[in-house]
C-alpha cells in the first residue's frame, strides 16, 4: 500500500475491517479507534492479524500524526475525546453535541493534519453525498501535504478519489487492484440507477 490513497472495496464480510484494524494495530493505534495515544477498550474483539503484519515504511517518512476512524465505534472515541478534555483539537465542540456526519467532518477538518497516516473504515456511514465530496476535497489537501490514507468503503463517490489505488477483496478472499469502472459498488450503483425498477420489481 504505497499509494497516497488506498481504497479497500469488497462485499459485506469480505474482510475489509479485519484488514484495516490489523494495519491500525500494527501501526500502534488503539484497536477501537482514535489516535495512537488513545488507550481505552470497551470490548476487545480485534483479531490477532495485527500482530503478524509488518508495516514497511519509506525511510524518513514516519507519520507525524494519524487517526483510526471506525464508524461503528466512533461513539466511544467521542466519549474518550471528552474524557481527555481535547475537544479543542476537534473543532471545539464535543462530537457528542454534533450530528454523526458533522462530527466526522469536524474530525477531518480540525484533527487531521499534514504528514499523517489515516485509516478510515466506512467514513461514508455518516456522510451525505455532499459530505463525501467534502471529505474527498480534504483528502486531496492532506495528500498534497504528505499524508497517507487507507479507506475501507462501499461508496462509489469515495471510490472516485483521484489518484487512488482501489484494492477489491473478492469472494475467495483474493485481493486485486481494480479500476474505478470495474469496482463492484460502482458497477452495481450504475446498474441500479440506470433502471431501479428492474431491481425493485423482484420485491413486489
Ligand atoms: N470478532 C470476530 N470474530 C470472529 N469472526 C469475525 C469477527 N469480526 C468479524 N468476523 C468475521 O470475519 C469476516 C470479515 O469481517 P469484516 O468485518 O472484516 O468484513 P467487512 O469486509 O469489513 O464487512 P462490512 O462491509 O460488512 O463491514 C466476516 O465473515 C465476519 O463474520
Ligand atoms: Mg467492515
Automatic annotation (TrEMBL):
Q: Please, which domain of life does this record's source organism belong to?
A: Bacteria
Gene Ontology MF terms: ATP binding; ATP hydrolysis activity
InterPro entries given in the database record: AAA+_ATPase, ATPase_AAA_core, P-loop_NTPase, Rad50/SbcC_AAA, Siderophore_ABC-ATPase
Q: What keywords is this UniProt entry annotated with?
A: Cell membrane, Ion transport, Iron, Iron transport, Membrane, Transport
One Pfam family assigned to this protein is AAA_23
What is its membrane topology? Peripheral membrane protein
Q: Where in the cell is it found?
A: Cell membrane
GO CC annotation: plasma membrane
Q: Which SMART domains match?
A: AAA
Residues annotated as domain AAA+ ATPase: 2-173
One biological process term from GO is: double-strand break repair
Q: Please indicate if the UniProt record lists Ion transport as a keyword.
A: yes
The reply to whether Cell membrane figures as a keyword in the UniProt entry is: yes
Q: What is this protein called?
A: Putative ATPase
Source organism per entry reads Actinoplanes italicus
Q: What is the lineage of its organism?
A: Bacteria, Bacillati, Actinomycetota, Actinomycetes, Micromonosporales
